[in-house]
Amino acid sequence: MGDGAALVERMAERRAGVGDPGALVGELRRALVLVPYDRGGLWTAEFGGIRWVCGFTDEAALARFAEE
């Protein structure tokens, strides 16, 4: 597993409206993704009527989230 840089790059491409969705999925499968626990379960949030699992590409991003 890499440092998450390739995943972040693929995410930026998709946000910009370019890039290959399959490449993004591939990088996500290869990446270490940190998912916080809350009350014994995965930390989730609802957006647009869909419940999402929150995940972070590195410890610094997770720490910033935890501070908020």
Structural class, by secondary structure, is: alpha+beta
Give the H and E element order. Answer: HHEEEEH
Strand content: 15-25%
- Mean pLDDT over the residues: 91
SS summary, helix count: 3
Q: Characterize the overall form.
A: globular
Largest sheet: 2 strands, antiparallel
Distance between the termini: 28 Å
Question: Taking Cα atoms only, what radius of gyration do you get, to the nearest Å?
Answer: 13 Å
Helix content: 40-55%
Protein name: SseB family protein
Organism: Streptomyces parvus
Keywords:
two-stranded antiparallel sheet; 68 residues; 3 helices; globular; two-stranded antiparallel ribbon
3D architecture notes:
The chain has 2 domains: 32 residues, no CATH class; 36 residues, no CATH class. The protein contains 3 helices and 4 strands. The strands form 2 sheets. A two-stranded antiparallel ribbon has the order 1-2. It has a two-stranded antiparallel sheet with strand order 3-4. The protein is globular, with a radius of gyration of 13 Å. It comes from Streptomyces parvus. This is SseB family protein.
Could you provide a short overview of the structure?
The model has no long low-confidence stretch (mean pLDDT 91). It is built from three helices and four strands. This is SseB family protein.
What's the SSE blueprint?
Layout: H1 5-15, H2 21-30, E1 37-38, E2 41-42, E3 44-47, E4 50-53, H3 59-67
Helix pairs in contact: 1-2
